[in-house]
Each structure stands twice: as C-alpha cells, then as structure tokens.
C-alpha cells in the first residue's frame, strides 16, 4: 500500500500498524508524535492502529535542549 509520510510517498505492507511503520523507519516511538489523517494517534494506540492505503502521516520528532 502507499502512504504519505511527511509529504513523501512510501510503500508499506498491507495491514501495517503505526508501531510497525516506526520500526521500519528505525524511529523510536518514545521520541515522536504521530498524526494520522489530521488526528494525533495516542502512543498507547500505536500497536493497534492499522494504516490504510492513501493515509497521510506526519511524524514529529521531539528535540531536547536548553
């Protein structure tokens, strides 16, 4: 299936969850927020939320500093 991740079209396997997508992208789930079709996905739902063909995903990384 095709999804848009931060404006870039990517291919993912059918039935991929948010958690699996992050693992494939080698992104630690604890350091990001994920927006799926303009809705924030709670971290507790990452393993259950299944992606669909055509979904638009935005991944925001948290950056520390001072």
UniProtKB/TrEMBL annotation:
State the NCBIfam families in the record: thiS
Question: What protein name does the entry list?
Answer: Sulfur carrier protein ThiS
- Its source organism is Trichlorobacter thiogenes
Q: What lineage does the source organism belong to?
A: Bacteria, Pseudomonadati, Thermodesulfobacteriota, Desulfuromonadia, Geobacterales
């Amino acid at each position: 299936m095709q999804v848009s991740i931060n404006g870039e079209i990517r291919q993912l396997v059918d039935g991929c969850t948010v958690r699996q997508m992050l693992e494939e992208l080698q992104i630690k789930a604890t350091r990001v927020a994920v927006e799926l079709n303009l809705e924030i996905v709670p971290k507790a739902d990452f393993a259950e939320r299944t992606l669909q063909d055509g979904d638009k995903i935005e991944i925001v990384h948290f950056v520390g500093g001072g």
